[in-house]
Fold this protein.
Amino acid sequence: MRRLFAWGNVKTWSIYLSHPDATNAWNPPVDIYRGPRGWLLKFDLAGVSPSDVKVRISGSRVTVSGVRRDWVVEQGYSHHSMEISYNRFERTVELPGDLSRAEYSLEARDGLLLVRVDLE
Amino acid sequence: MPEPQNNVQVLPLVPLKNSVLFPNLLMPLSIGRAASLAAVEAALATEEKEIVVVAQRDPAVDVPGPDSIYTIGTKAVIRKMSRPSEDMLEVLVLGVERVVILKVDATEPYIRARVQPYPVPAERNAEIEALTRALLELGAKAISLAQNQQPQNPAELGKLLGFNDDPLRLVYLLASMFSLEVAKEQTLLEAPSRVEALRLMHGYLSHELQVLELRNKIASDARTEMSKEQREYMLRQQLKAIQQELGEKNPDQAEVEMLREQLEKADLPEEVRKEANRELSRLERMPAGQPEHGVIRTYLELLLELPWNKYTEDNLDIARARQVLDEDHFNLKEVKERILEHLGVLKLNPEAKAPILCFVGPPGVGKTSLGQSIARALGRKFERMSLGGLHDEAELRGHRRTYIGAMPGRLIQAIRRAGAKNPVLMLDEVDKLGRDFRGDPAAALLEVLDPEQNKTFRDNYLDLPFDLSKVLFVTTANTLDTIPRPLLDRMEILRLSGYSEEEKVQIARRYLIPRQLNQTGLKPEQCQITDEALKKLISGYTREAGLRRLEQAIGRIARKVALKFAEDPEAGAATVTPDDVVEMLGPEPFHLEQARKELPPGVATGLAWTETGGDVLYIEATLLPDGKGLTLTGQLGEVMQESAKAAQSYVWSHAELLGIDPAIFKNSGVHVHVPAGAIPKDGPSAGVTMVTALASLYTKLPARNDTAMTGEVTLTGLVLPIGGVKEKVLAARRAGIKRVILPKANQKDLRDVPEAVRSEMEFVFADRIEDVLMAAIPDLSERLLITSKVA
């Protein structure tokens, strides 16, 4: 039976793939802002504490990775459905220009994670 | 090897029935089994949402235990989850890494497994590079093939395959896209190295590609076939519509109506009419395109055409019939009488059963043409079919209508051609029926030729009884030996033996010459052939019992004469003499076995019957000084060999009577040879000749060279009658032998020999072998007379 539908699966092949540069983690969406001192990256990462986030800068790439852990909102409740991704996430963005001497800082505000990359 | 203890995790496990989850890939899962539901619920209650997904070894197992799952699986994170119904879960899982199951901690309420990451060692070398490229190429090909069927398949897939830098990911991606069998996918997951995984995948994908190519071909073939059939259907529908517009009747309908009309008019027996009506109504309900439509129509046409109740009026004027028979054939009194007898019977009793005649005789004596003149004499239709070489029973009795291209048998076809129920039906060459695994046509003939059974002859195709009892069957054969006994018993045997020279001259004058002259357009007075020339033709140019070659030879002469007249219309009438014959036809091709001038002791003249008439044969015997026993050569059959032994025994036991020194038997063997050595011979009728040859050999007295002999001999010296007297006598005369020794019991058969021949020959009739020896060996006769007197 499975064989019969083999190419039915190809139609939906894209759902087998996460974002091309991801491996085994999910990719949070990101907005990128440009400012007088450098870059501001705004990640859609609600429920993630900055202590669980790691930032890596190499060349012109910035990689933000970490873990989003679920927590029990109230005792006695269990999932009926789930749309938020948990566990490991990772996102790499490529920015114009060399970042080797840049510095970064993290801030969680209203469910969004702000990463500032200052070019000194 | 995974060493550090802290890598080990205990996770809920979800067994998969028919797929394998690969690391780095997303897969939607429908969870319905209680244990799996519980496992997913448990995972969802954790912070990390992690589970282990492992394929089942056998998808038929519903509640798998630790033994029925593979030991290598994939750790996964649940990315999304929803509940389409109360007892169903749909989850989207992302494969994280390959894990090995170390231990199953619990199976209730769900399987909890102790797992450890089991990464594929990272490596990079030229072989991996090469395999990756080959796999990419293969993958691209397979995808483009698949895209033919699925045009909406995103084009970037190939691109996506292109920039996959980890070959393992490429393998996993292709595997999930082409949905291989679980066992194959599991081997990919378990592959110990990247090289191994690439190799395996390359093999699997080549197979997939072949399957795809084949499927594409089948699909395109089916498409063309379908459109052709649809086209025909469309055109037919249009044709129908046009005909309706024009007010024309549907041609199928018109045809059925025509057949019905014919059926009503036709004179058919009740049973046949019922069957015909049934077939007709089947025809009506059937669309014309169907192959069976044609089959039924042909069948109905046969039913209509067969002469179920049609007869031709018999001409019962016996005088006229006699005249017709005499016109067509010379002599053949016996056969003509038999035909006239039947005519007489028919006159008194019109219901009389027709006899089944069998004409036996050598080729060219007029068996077939006799059949035709019987039909002419009786005023019946004549149909002829040759059974020579027929080896399939179905040829006679037809094929059942279920077969494609089925036809009625030859008998029914002949009746249909004749158009009457009482034709003269000639079955030629009944002695040359074949027989093989497809059946025995002779056995089928048994039914046909039995007057008791053939009233309801059932052809396989017709499948209705047809009355053959009014058919006058005439069969022909060259010999009776090969006709099966039961078949022979059903027939009345009429022999047509060969013709003598005088008869041939008569037949040539009356029938052959006029016919050949007529064909060449010569007038009788333009070409005269003298009797001497005819005789030369008969003895020197043709060697046969019948007349075929004689007629051909006359035809050649007629054509040569015709050519002369064509070149010179003023030429006078030609008279063909024996010398002209030699000039026209070249030297004589045949030299008859002429009487030998002088016979040495040990040679005697015998007479043989062959299928082409009679022949003279010499039996030669000689003593072998040092030999022992009896040597026989010359392709002698079993009967003839026994006959030679009996002859030897007779001579030995009567040595004293014949005046032979018995010492000669002890000291020497004897060799008997019968020329011509290449022709097989058999039969008992050379018995007396053998005795004569041996007696002549042992007594050293030569036999008479002008005497031929035939007859079977017993050990005690009785001479028994033999067959074929007429042919044998004619053969002796042809060879120039004027004296023939025959068994006394055959004296009556001389009636068959023409008067002219009889009067110029001398016959000796023998009761005992001593009579033969006295007549054949003159010097011995004195000795025999003396001894018999003394005795």
